[in-house]
Design goal:
The structure is a single chain. The protein has 12 helices and no strands. The protein is an all-alpha fold. The chain has 2 domains: 87 residues, Tetratricopeptide repeat domain (Serine Threonine Protein Phosphatase 5, Tetratricopeptide repeat, Alpha Horseshoe); 84 residues, Tetratricopeptide repeat domain (Serine Threonine Protein Phosphatase 5, Tetratricopeptide repeat, Alpha Horseshoe), CATH 1.25.40.10. The radius of gyration is 35 Å and the shape is elongated. The N terminus is likely disordered.
Length: 233
């Protein structure tokens, strides 16, 4: 008797459940999900990749930095500004690894993209200097100065190149221009003093080398400069 009552209750319950399911809109039924689609990972934008590469370079992780820059350079949707920064930064990484030809190539690509920015010409000049191509280095400093004539370091660097070629008077002109822009540049006094010493301009050499030591009392080449000054007495 009890079993018949339990069976009757179960039958009524199942009937009510069936009616509830039939009358419930499909949209409101919580159906189990049988698929577990992972979220789509978005690739960082090219400007973020370049910035990450810059930070990796600062952290002395060149391989990782080069990998990110390669993604920017090979990405057909990279805009001109990001490509410029990528080529410029990769050129610096190559130069730090003494791969000067690769550095020059990347600097040249950067210049093609942004021909009016002075800094990249100066960097390419240092790469040319490293492979002793002084004429190309001077030409690049000419362009850097044309783009930004107010930067004294460009004149100092170009003067050093002229001194390397033993064009001391031209070098002195460049050092003088640099000092006209910034008269606290110790290196400009040093280089002008040495150029003057090379062509026996004793007075200029003496005053410049003395000023260099005043501005750089802990200069690593102090002994050598003091020896030159003693020879000039």
């Amino acid at each position: 008797m009890i079993n018949k009552i339990i069976l009757g209750i179960a039958t009524v319950f199942l009937s009510l459940l069936a009616v509830l399911i039939i009358n419930t809109p499909t949209s409101s039924m919580a159906l189990p999900s049988f698929t577990n689609t992972p979220p789509v990972e978005q690739t960082p934008s090219t400007d973020i990749l370049v910035e990450q590469a810059r930070l990796l370079k600062r952290a002395e992780r060149p391989t990782a930095a080069l990998f990110l820059l390669e993604q920017v350079i090979l990405n057909p949707s990279s805009d001109e500004a990001d490509l410029y920064r990528a080529y410029f930064l990769r050129g610096q990484l190559y130069q730090e690894q003494a791969q000067y030809e690769l550095a020059i190539r990347d600097y040249s690509e950067a210049i093609t993209l942004q021909p009016n920015l002075s800094e990249v010409y100066a960097f390419r000049a240092t790469a040319f200097f490293a492979i002793a191509d002084y004429e190309a280095a001077i030409a690049d400093y000419d362009l850097a100065i044309e783009k930004d004539p107010s930067e004294p370091s460009y004149y100092v660097a170009r003067g050093i190149l002229h001194a390397q070629k033993k064009d001391y008077e031209i070098a002195i002109d460049d050092f003088t221009t640099a000092l006209a822009i910034d008269d606290t540049l110790a290196v400009a006094y040093r280089e002008r003093g040495l150029a003057a010493y090379a062509i026996d301009q004793i007075s200029l050499a003496t005053t410049d080398l003395q000023q260099y030591l005043r501005l750089s009392p802990n200069a690593p080449d102090r002994e050598q400069i003091e020896a030159i000054l003693k020879n000039l007495e």
